[in-house]
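Field reference: sequence -> structure
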Amino acid sequence: MNTILFPALWLERVKQLLAKTFPRGGAHIPHRKEGSESKAIVAMPAPKEVIIPLSQHIGAPNKPTVSINDRVLMGQVIGETDQFVSAPVHASVSGRVQAIEERPLMDGSKTLCIVIENDGLDESVPGTQTTLERLSAEAIKEAAKRAGLVGMGGAGFPTHVKLAVPRPVDTVIVNGAECEPYLTCDHRLMVEQADAMVLGLKAAMKAVGATHGVIGIEVNKPDAIEMVRSAAKGDSNLRVVPLQVRYPQGAEKQLIKAALNREVPSGALPFEVGCVVSNVHTLISLAAAVTSGTSSYQRVLTLSGRAAVDPRNVSARVGTKVQDVIDFCGGMYGEPAVIVAGGPMTGPSVQSLEGPVVKSTSGILLLTEEEIALDENRPCIRCARCVDYCPMGLTPNVLGLFSDKGRIEEAAKWNLMDCIECSVCSYVCPSRRALVTWIKQGKQDYTALQRQKKAE
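Structure field:
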């Protein structure tokens, strides 16, 4: 071994061992972030046409508030509902409404969208400049709602609903782990916009009445740790917690355990143990919403994978087609074996390149055959690796079998609904069984069964 490098390698190992993590399961998965982690965010030109789905969140669907041929401004509300668990959508360009019709999403399904022809002027609705100090907790929540903020790490849960905690909490945790392979958009945002993220954290703390803010960042992002510590310097209520590089470190329950040593019970939510967890990008968007009234109509995402000509982090308008993002990054090397929206462990495969970027799109991955492992569903060899590696302490082999055979109520007794769908079980399975696919379907079937029973 090179004696000059040895001390540096030893130091990195010590940092990893001293960092916080969750107590059970999980796996060390190749990062594959080198293609884009050192590349600054680049703003992508707005496309000639944007396709904006009316629902980009968990909750009640929106209804159009504009008509065909209407001229709209960037940031203007074009779809909303009066239901609490919802988030309005906004025009991401100025221009004319061409159509209000069903269009394909990335996964191939169709949903009602508003199609806007970009006039190239980027005329926007007037903003309102203010400071966080002048806003009440209720005003912060209302600003988040008006801006249409949702969880931008992939979940899409409305931010104003998350901030409306039914009981007091003492801590807001920032999820800066970004533990999925390839994805680097949150990493770059922490490096380039740390001050905005800290401001968004303070806004979230004020909204929920929390006295402490914790930023959890994996130790493989030392530049992000340095920048965020600098941005939080001088505020004794904020602290950065270095986290071990371990998947799924960024899962909500695992992050809470690592950062605060609090265990979220089965069926419970984070506020029940006194905390709220928010994504890096979400908090940066919250800062813009509360200080200038900026709506959620663009986001930073990572385009990567070995089939990508120029992996990079781009800022794209909501409604930009997948094909447009790929073209902006130089196109593809041949035909990828699969294209994934989000991270490779949890993201769905892309079936339509005409599908648009939405608020929760964290990545577009162009993966070659060498980068993927397809399900083969060979017989289970009873090795119990899936049990050993499950971060929730479940028995994925049993849950997968019951779910696949339609024995949903039996699966529920084995805590089916506690699965966080991290895919570790499928990743470590030597028989390449589609455990997480079966479990996901089982959860959907169980939810449908419960609805049916409630309706009877």
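Note: The first strand starts at residue 42 and ends at 43.
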